[in-house]
């Protein structure tokens, strides 16, 4: 959440920046509740001081009256605090100054294109045709067992996924990322603290009173909830592998063929906890790691900087990497790298010790490898005329083969 002091001093700016992200926010009620709350805090503090004086002078009647009045004021304050925290959590994080104002993804900025697009002397197949023909992908049976937007990976495609996971973990181990396999269920408090309204509006899978994670970030960030880092411990970087789950609510009719958009997928995710002054440098560093992996895989891609209207609720700035998908004749998102500044740390109470005081850390996240889209990109960009698929050289040692034969 945002700092209430900043909101008080910049109410018009906050409303305008929120509007740029597509959120209509009225701060009048929040500021009114905040004003009442601050006055009541002063009244409660004074009554507590008066009660202490009465106890020291042994004025029993006065002390009893003060105690009753204090209880009433404390109850009022508790209710106001609940209303205050509900209202302030409805205010989205603000986009950074360098983020272009735009209404949706059509106005995102292409920063650069990297790699040459494949040239085929034959009609290329899509990943579904390739996967079915090579017996490495089965959607029909998955639909029978689990419903639409599920799939079975088989044979060489399984080996390829695990080679990709190992590939990403090894690169990030060299950068001192701490490796984690996290839980995939989070509780309601954590879901609210992360600042993703999607959990409660249809995107998240609910299991009793918990949620299945939409990415490993969602269980890695709250690892340090209600904790304080030593300043010397930052940056703290994690790389996590987990299965992720998304309902894809609102995507009816989109990407219905194949496994571009699915409900369950595996992902290797990076999360960084940093000092505020290191935020921009860390964001560029995470993006550079994504690009390093893409170049080693020899896949053509473009880097896109999202405009304000495409940013999520907690996100202040976000880069996407979009990889070329030949069958669609366009780039599709395979990676993202986001900074959420101190928005999540305020909601989850994650701080660092700065001298005698405690300050909120800044939190960033980025994709290392996300299945199945990176599998699709490898399959389609490296397909051969005979229907076989060449495996990127950096993965051949771990797959144990250099080609998926036709």
Topology:
Blueprint: H1 4-9, H2 11-20, H3 28-56, H4 60-88, E1 109-114, H5 127-133, E2 137-138, H6 140-146, E3 152-153, H7 156-173, E4 178-180, E5 185-187, H8 188-194, E6 206-207, E7 210-212, H9 217-220, E8 227-230, E9 236-245, E10 264-274, H10 279-297, E11 301-305, E12 317-325, E13 330-339, H11 343-348, E14 350-354, E15 357-360, E16 362-370, H12 373-381, E17 389-390, H13 393-399, E18 403-404
Parallel strand pairs: 4-9, 8-14
Antiparallel strand pairs: 1-11, 2-3, 5-7, 6-7, 9-10, 10-16, 11-12, 12-13, 13-16, 14-15, 17-18
Q: Identify the strand order in the major beta sheet.
A: 1-11-12-13-16-10-9-4
Number of helix segments?
A: 13
Average pLDDT number: 94
The unreliable regions are none
Would you tell me which CATH topology of the largest domain applies?
BirA Bifunctional Protein, domain 2
CATH architecture of the largest domain: 2-Layer Sandwich
- CATH superfamily annotation of the largest domain: Bira Bifunctional Protein, Domain 2
Choose one word for the global shape.
elongated
Explain what you see:
The chain starts with a helix and ends with a strand. Helix 7 packs across helix 13. The strands form five sheets. The protein has an eight-stranded mixed sheet with strand order 1-11-12-13-16-10-9-4. The protein is of the alpha+beta class and 406 residues long. It has two domains: 28-88; 105-404, Bira Bifunctional Protein, Domain 2 (BirA Bifunctional Protein, domain 2, 2-Layer Sandwich). It has helices at residues 4-9, 11-20, 28-56, 60-88, 127-133, 140-146, 156-173, 188-194, 217-220, 279-297, 343-348, 373-381, 393-399; strands spanning 109-114, 137-138, 152-153, 178-180, 185-187, 206-207, 210-212, 227-230, 236-245, 264-274, 301-305, 317-325, 330-339, 350-354, 357-360, 362-370, 389-390, 403-404.
């Amino acid at each position: 959440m945002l700092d209430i002091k900043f909101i008080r001093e910049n109410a018009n700016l906050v409303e305008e920046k929120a509007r740029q992200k597509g959120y209509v926010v009225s701060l009048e009620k929040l500021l009114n509740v905040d004003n009442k709350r601050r006055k009541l805090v002063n009244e409660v503090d004074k009554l507590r001081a008066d009660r202490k004086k009465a106890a020291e002078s042994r004025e029993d009647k006065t002390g009893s009256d003060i105690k009753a009045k204090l209880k009433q004021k404390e109850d009022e304050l508790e209710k106001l605090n609940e209303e205050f925290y509900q209202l302030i959590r409805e205010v989205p994080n603000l986009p950074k100054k360098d983020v272009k104002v735009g209404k949706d993804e059509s106005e995102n900025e292409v920063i650069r294109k990297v790699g040459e697009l494949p040239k085929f002397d034959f009609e290329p197949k899509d990943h579904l045709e390739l996967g079915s023909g090579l017996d490495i992908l089965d959607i029909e049976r998955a639909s029978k067992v689990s419903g639409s937007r599920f799939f079975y990976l088989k044979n060489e495609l399984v080996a390829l996924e695990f080679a990709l996971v190992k590939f990403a973990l090894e690169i990030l181990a060299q950068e001192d990322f701490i490796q984690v396999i996290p839980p995939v269920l989070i509780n309601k408090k954590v879901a609210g603290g992360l600042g993703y309204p999607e959990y409660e509006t249809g995107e998240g899978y609910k299991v009793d009173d918990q949620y299945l994670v939409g990415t490993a970030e969602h269980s890695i960030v709250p690892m340090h909830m209600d904790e304080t880092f030593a300043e010397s411990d930052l940056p703290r970087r994690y790389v996590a592998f987990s299965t992720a789950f998304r309902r894809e609510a609102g995507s009816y009719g989109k990407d219905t063929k194949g496994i571009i958009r699915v409900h369950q997928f595996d992902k290797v995710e990076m999360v960084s906890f940093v000092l505020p002054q290191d935020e921009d440098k860390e964001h560029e560093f995470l993006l550079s790691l994504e690009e390093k992996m893409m170049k080693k895989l020899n896949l053509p891609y473009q880097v896109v900087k999202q405009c304000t209207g495409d940013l999520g609720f907690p996100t202040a700035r976000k880069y996407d990497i979009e990889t070329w998908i030949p069958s669609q004749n366009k780039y599709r998102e395979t990676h993202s790298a986001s900074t959420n500044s101190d928005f999540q740390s305020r909601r989850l109470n994650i701080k660092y010790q700065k001298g005698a005081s405690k300050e909120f850390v800044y939190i960033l996240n980025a994709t290392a490898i996300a299945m199945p889209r990176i599998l699709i990109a490898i399959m389609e960009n490296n397909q051969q005329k005979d229907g076989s698929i060449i495996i990127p050289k950096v993965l051949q040692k771990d797959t144990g083969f250099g080609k998926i034969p036709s």
